[in-house]
Amino acid sequence: MSDSDVTEDWLLNEQVRLFQPKKGYRAGLDAILLAASLDGRPGEHFLELGCGAGGALFPSAHRLLEARFTGVERVPLMVALAKRGIEANRFSDRVNVVEADISQLPKDWENGFDQVFSNPPYFEPGRIQAPHEGRSHAYMADVSLADWLKAMLHAAKPKGRITIIHRGGALGDILSYLMSRTGQIEVYPIRSAPGEAAKRVIVTARKGLRRGDIVLHDGMNMYPSRGTTTYTDEAKRILNGGPLNW
Predict the structure, then answer these.
(1) Could you tell me which residue ranges the Methyltransferase domain spans (predicted)?
(2) What DSSP line would sit under the chain, residue for residue?
(3) Is residue 245 part of a domain?
């Protein structure tokens, strides 16, 4: 792919640079919301499964300055763009990207990361009409949601945290898998506007724990009312690099 097929974009009010294909999948709000949902102690090592060109990885590294990050991506082009972004953002001392499939993670990664996060493909083959060229790897999963969650838990340390953003309609499947394997589960709904159903949910949990009720947060609205195009103050704060308020 030549430079004419790649765009240089800015996230978080021009605080983070991102190189991505002009056509096909491009990072959006979900990645920024996922990044905003993360928190941790200095020195923690985060792993993102399916990092793409860095849409969530880079905002996370920008805000959590004392943490290390590893991204996993199976598409060689996206890996190359992510590595270009690492250099452009001067993250080389604490961010790296590995080309791999989540179904074949390195064996020594088991129980290896303090936190694992992901914005996985939302649909399994046959569930939706085939997406446009270049977007299939982002929207169509080659593995089930359960297997994706399994990979996240595999890489997380005991009592480590996993965080995932997904369709609101997938919440039941996510909780069904996590309830017997994790604890301290929290759910954060994302709505377009007040009164609407949550199209996205962020779910976080700790590996291997067996205590605590599921916490359902009030969540947030992206817009103050249906049909408006101006973000809420909370959405603006997050899009400028602020953390999500759990």
Answers:
(1) 43-166
(2) --GGGEEEEEETTTTEEEEEESSS----HHHHHHHHT----TT-EEEEES-TTTTTHHHHHHH-TT-EEEEEES-HHHHHHHHHHHHHTT-TTTEEEEE--GGG--GGGTT-EEEEEE----B-TTSSPPPPTT-HHHHB-SS-HHHHHHHHHHHEEEEEEEEEEEEGGGHHHHHHHHTTTEEEEEEEEEESSTTSPEEEEEEEEEET---SPPEE---EESSSSTT--SPPHHHHHHHTTPPP--
(3) no
